[in-house]
Amino acid sequence: MGNCVIYLKEVSFILISGFGFFHLFFSFLSNNKSFKTLNAKLISFDIALMISGIVFLLTYMYVTANAHSSYANMYLFNPTRTFVIFVLAAPFVSVVLPCMLVARFVLLYKHRQFPNPFWDSIGLVAFVYFVAFLILDMGHFNYLMPANILAYIYTLYVVSLYGKLLIKKVVFWCVSIVAGFILITNAIPQGIHYFTLNKIQMRNFEHMFGFLQAYLADHPQTTLYFDGFGRGFDRYYYFTSYETIFSILPNLYNTQIFDIKSKEPNGKTFRANPEAKFSFYNSDEVSEPQSGDLVILTFFSGKPITPEYIQALHQKYELLFVTNNFGYMPSYNLMSLGAYVLQKLGINHSLSNVGNTFKLPSQMYVFRVP
With CB atoms counted within 10 Å of each terminal CB, which end of the chain scores lower, N or C? Predict the structure, then answer.
């Protein structure tokens, strides 16, 4: 199962093989620096875990030897953005865990004790996993979920050992207050946002595409414009997701005779693909919707969506359809608020690269050009 995890999420080799390495090393230390009396099965198991990572790395190097680009280059990552995302999304990994590790190993050194082979290995692999993503310069809300779980477990272990000592320290309370503030203002609201996005907005997509299937059956050759969908990942954060969205009608609803175009400015990285099915990809032309065309508004829009913007669309176009599913929580959290402030101040920074910082609107709209 560990090997399956590695090949589904590459960086997981650090958790699997790292645990094997630290567990064997700490077992060696706690056994008077000797392997002779260690359980042979334990040694074999730890070595097998380490070999798993080595095999994966060799395989990965071979498969990617001729790669001309990287996943990180497809998105607007940079060290500052990655660090801020991880601090705000996973304070137990980025703030609490390093402090717990420092406290733990300082006290071990002070009392001339050896690390616990199991528990301290858990804490260290969680931290190394976090550092690996910082080095790779890749950051998303969900990336640290495995390390998050391990960090919570390790924190409980350290508190169970030194709780009475820690509560007397000002540093402990400062770390707790900072982590608690981040959890309340960002991590928990962000988690609720993504949960409701996956539940409610996917339902919105289902209902909207169901309407489009019926409409396009009666109105073939219709051109669709997704409001705020532009070309080039340097300008549109979700550009790489558009292809999946555009494929839903042809692949899942068996609707083929329509086209998709863009009315938004192109990014610098966009290159037209003459063999692509939709004009959105096979041309770099930016055009305005014509009479009979449909304009679709979703939370994937790269524009800042406000009630006034939606009202302007109502006045300009004819509303054909709007979803009616409730329970979605927009991205109202500290990170989105910070990005919004940067935008309002006119500061061009990777932390403010997503125009629609609050992931609005809550519903999906289909308009027709009169």
Answer: N
pLDDT tens digits, 183-193: 999 999 999 99
Which H or E run includes 223?
A: strand 222-226
Question: What is the residue type of 18?
Answer: G
Query: Which pair of tokens denotes residue 161?
Result: 């050992």
41-79 as b/e, with b when 16 or more CB fall inside 10 Å? eeeeebeebbebbeebeeeeeeeeeeeeeeeeeebbbee
Are the beta carbons of 269 and 236 closer than 8 angstroms? no
Q: What is the dihedral of CA 23, 25, 31, 34, to 10 degrees?
A: 140
DSSP line for 277-325: SSHHHH--------TT-EEEE-TT-SS---HHHHHHHHHHSEEEEE---
DSSP 367: E
In this structure, how many other beta carbons lie within 10 angstroms of the beta carbon of residue 272? 15
Residue of 119, 136, 108 whose CA lies nearest to 10? 136
Q: Please write the tens of the pLDDT for every residue from 158-213.
A: 999 999 999 999 999 999 999 999 999 999 999 999 999 999 999 999 999 999 99
Query: In whole angstroms, what is the distance from residue 74 CA to residue 241 CA?
Result: 11
Residue 160, classed as helix, strand or coil, is helix
Q: What does each C-alpha distance from 332 to 36, 41, 115, 139, 358 come to in angstroms?
A: 57, 51, 41, 19, 6
Joined together, the tokens standing for residue 349 give 């920074």
The span from the CA of 208 to the CA of 72, in Å, is 32
Nearest to 49 by CA among 25, 17, 78: 17
Tally of CB atoms within 10 A around 122: 21
pTM over 0.85: yes
